[in-house]
Amino acid sequence: MSNYVLLDPAKHQDIKIKPHSNFGFSKNQHHASLVVHEFGAAASSFPVVYMKEPTQGQFRAVGLLGLVAGHNVFFTEQEWLAVHVPSAFLRAPFELGPDPEKDKTLTIYINEQSDYVNNSQGEALFQNGEPSQFLHQVQDKMSEYYQQEQVSHEFTQKLLSLSLLKEIELVINFSDGKKKRVKGIYTIDEEALRKLPDTDIVELNKQNYLLPIHAMLSSLVQVNRLIKHHNHCSENTILGVQMRANAGE
């Protein structure tokens, strides 16, 4: 459960933050937001794809954490099973939100319901009414993440302008005989990439966009890792997954 409120030195003077552990808050998440800076590392653990927001239609880069909605196959009570941890998870229990005192300015919010938030263990946020060194580090990290999100947005817009995203669907076959089709997933259109003029390829290279593009493509093999982890903890195992262009049915 999330309950983000404006971080307030008067209200949160005694708050402490526990260190990250097994990321239990992600137990029921089957995907996690990613920034372009982590595509290469994320590709070592899970498929890196795009999803389209149902309301505003915006594209968002995510790492697939499972093939069944509400099931994160990398979470266990003992440890986090993936090599990579999404940077969005490392922000917990903090988030950016509008500063009520400054127009067009973001500031830090805290999830008061997070398991990391308590009054006895971990790093203090304030000392004698002033931000602690730990809080200054959090502020720096949040600022860095915001900048990375802006770069990620520019990267996404470039992919769209060059028509490099294509929709695919996953057809999942389960041991109980049922079949599930997962749509709304976008990856790099390899054919469109090959047909790009040399000038566009050079520009992508100068913008350091080729590495994340190829990381997305190579990451699709991690569907096999999702199957393996799913089958390790579920009785209704996955027999196989077909990946194909969305037929639009």
Radius of gyration: 20 Å
The residue-averaged pLDDT reads 94
Helix/strand-derived category reads: alpha+beta
What count of helical segments does DSSP give?
Answer: 7
What percent of residues are in strands? 25-35%
β-strand number: 14
Strands ordered across the widest β-sheet: 3-5-4-13-12-14
Describe this structure in words.
- By secondary structure, this protein is an alpha+beta fold.
- 29% of the residues lie in helices and 27% in strands.
- The model has no long low-confidence stretch (mean pLDDT 94).
- The chain has seven helices and 14 strands.
- The chain has helices spanning 39-42, 87-90, 133-161, 190-194, 198-206, 210-219, 223-233; strands spanning 4-6, 16-17, 31-33, 48-52, 59-64, 94-98, 106-111, 117-118, 123-124, 126-127, 130-131, 165-174, 179-188, 238-245.
- A hairpin with a 7-residue loop joins strand 6 (94-98) and strand 7.
